[in-house]
Amino acid sequence: MTKTIPSQSSSLDDWLFYLESVHPENIAMGLERVASVANNIGLLNTSSKIILIAGTNGKGTTARCLESLLLAQGLSVGTYASPHLTHYNERVRVNGQELSDQYHVDAFHLLEQGRKDTALTYFEYGTLAALAIFKRCEVDYVLLEVGLGGRYDATNIVTPFASVITTIDLDHKEYLGDTRELVAYDKAGIFRENTPAIIGDLNIPHTMTDYGDEINAKMVLSGSDFIFKEHADTFSWQYQQYNLELAKPAIPSQNAATALTTLSVLNLLPSESVIKACLANLVVEGRFEQLSDQPLVYTDVAHNPESARYLASKLLSYKDKGFKIHALVAMLADKDKAGVLKEVSHLVDQWSLASLNGPRGDSASNLQNALQSIPHNDIKHSYNSVAAALDVILPTQQNDTVLIVFGSFFTVAGAIDYFKK
């Protein structure tokens, strides 16, 4: 591989290697650069209706639910998500399908011609490339996941048909602030005047609604405008004339309710029978995804306290059935390790801690230090990688035990790769 500029006949791997080298920072806040490049090549002049989706957690599952419900009505849909688990192509879907490498290469080549001297981060390249692909494919709707926060994220250069906020919690504190009020204000930056803004969080900070009122966004709020309640095996959703009871899907019911409300606001909600079929078939990779049934192994991308609480609710159902829980954890250095581990510690019978390789990966010893600060079972082992841990754990795992591998997208990717091999 080389740092010279790849061509339209270069491989996707060559392009990705190049993109990682052309901007000194992984994250660079601000919209001026990315908007300038988008305008240079006409990416913002599109007939597609764009739904922006922000939130601390739940963006991917909400987008997948929206995608399924739109596709079921014969509409064409482009979906942009990040990060990917095992390969870059996962970030862009058209009508629910990943695309060939050449689509991405063509888009990167277009950007390279149009950016001139403007530096772009890896994420900004990916965002603009996705917009280029969706314009090329002339999709009816674009589901655009916000990468970080909202106000200054690269995705926020578009003019949304609707904006969606899933949940609000503390993550990326160095960029978004260390209170929910600050995080909420940043995420509210994706709202637009006289445009639907659907908020699914269960405890909405006033900074978000204050900003929405200030710019006259058409806010639709969870808990007042729409309501969902979870039951043993179902959840109910109420919004205006709708009052449905639906089987719990494989994603958080809160995110399904937010997706249903969004489509209802936009007059795009399908029939009840179609809704039920879509929810029953929803599968989202890396979200309490089963990798094996003998032994019983799940994996989850939970990497902040809120997502860990949801993971705990899934593990509790197994605990109630008499299963023991063995947790294999690997995390990034900039995450709230103690906060995440605390949310599941009361359910875990045995811990295995693994190091994550890479520039942001944390060590098993730092995880162990974080674990010392909270009550936990003392049975624990440390490994230098997720794969090394699985080599030891799986051959001796008992039938009465669930192994949950979690803590990061990289952790999940490592587990998925291990089982594929």
Automatic annotation (TrEMBL):
UniProt catalytic activity? (6S)-5,6,7,8-tetrahydrofolyl-(gamma-L-Glu)(n) + L-glutamate + ATP = (6S)-5,6,7,8-tetrahydrofolyl-(gamma-L-Glu)(n+1) + ADP + phosphate + H(+); 10-formyltetrahydrofolyl-(gamma-L-Glu)(n) + L-glutamate + ATP = 10-formyltetrahydrofolyl-(gamma-L-Glu)(n+1) + ADP + phosphate + H(+); (6R)-5,10-methylenetetrahydrofolyl-(gamma-L-Glu)(n) + L-glutamate + ATP = (6R)-5,10-methylenetetrahydrofolyl-(gamma-L-Glu)(n+1) + ADP + phosphate + H(+); 7,8-dihydropteroate + L-glutamate + ATP = 7,8-dihydrofolate + ADP + phosphate + H(+)
Q: Which Gene3D superfamilies match?
A: Mur ligase, C-terminal domain, Mur-like, catalytic domain
Record-annotated Mur ligase central domain positions: 53-199
Q: Which InterPro entries match?
A: Folylpolyglutamate_synth (IPR001645), Folylpolyglutamate_synth_CS (IPR018109), Mur-like_cat_sf (IPR036565), Mur_ligase_C (IPR004101), Mur_ligase_C_dom_sf (IPR036615), Mur_ligase_cen (IPR013221)
Where do the Mur ligase C-terminal domain residues begin and end? 286-408
User: Gene Ontology cellular component?
Assistant: cytoplasm
Entry annotated with the keyword Transferase: no
One family from Pfam that matches here is Mur_ligase_M
GO MF annotations, alphabetized = ATP binding; dihydrofolate synthase activity; metal ion binding; tetrahydrofolylpolyglutamate synthase activity
EC number(s) per UniProt? 6.3.2.12, 6.3.2.17
Entry keyword Lyase: no
Keyword tags: ATP-binding, Folate biosynthesis, Ligase, Magnesium, Metal-binding, Nucleotide-binding
GO-annotated biological processes = folic acid biosynthetic process; tetrahydrofolate biosynthetic process
**Family as reported in the entry's similarity comment:** Belongs to the folylpolyglutamate synthase family.
Q: What is this protein called?
A: Dihydrofolate synthase/folylpolyglutamate synthase
Q: What organism is recorded for this protein?
A: Pseudoalteromonas translucida (strain TAC 125)
